[in-house]
Amino acid sequence: MDSYFLLNELRRELKEIWGIPILGEKKEVAKKFKEFCRKRKFKKIITVGDYCSLNLPSDVKIFDGRSRK
Fold it and tell me: Does 10 reside within a domain?
């Protein structure tokens, strides 16, 4: 797997929520996420954040070294 590092100038822009947040307990979020992706028929899925990237299936995973609880 390749690793890339984000330039500091882009970090602020990428902190904004660009998609639709899915909230709830771990199993509930996974179920909602899979259903949402199935309905929308996305070509690529990008997860941002350590928790999401580790727990949800995606084509591109962005790890930021933080967890929000």
Answer: no
Whether residue 1 is contained in a domain is answered as no
Contact of 66 with 54, CB cutoff 8 Å: no
pLDDT in tens, 22-60: 889 999 999 999 999 999 998 999 888 888 889 999 999
Lowest mean pLDDT segment, chosen from 10-14, 26-30, 51-55, 61-65: 10-14
Residue 49 burial (10 A CB sphere; 0-12, 13-18, 19+): middle
In whole angstroms, give the CA distance from residue 45 to residue 43: 7
Give the range of the structural domain holding residue 45, as residue numbers without chain letter: 24-69
* Domains identified in the chain, total number: 1
- Domain presence at residue 4: no
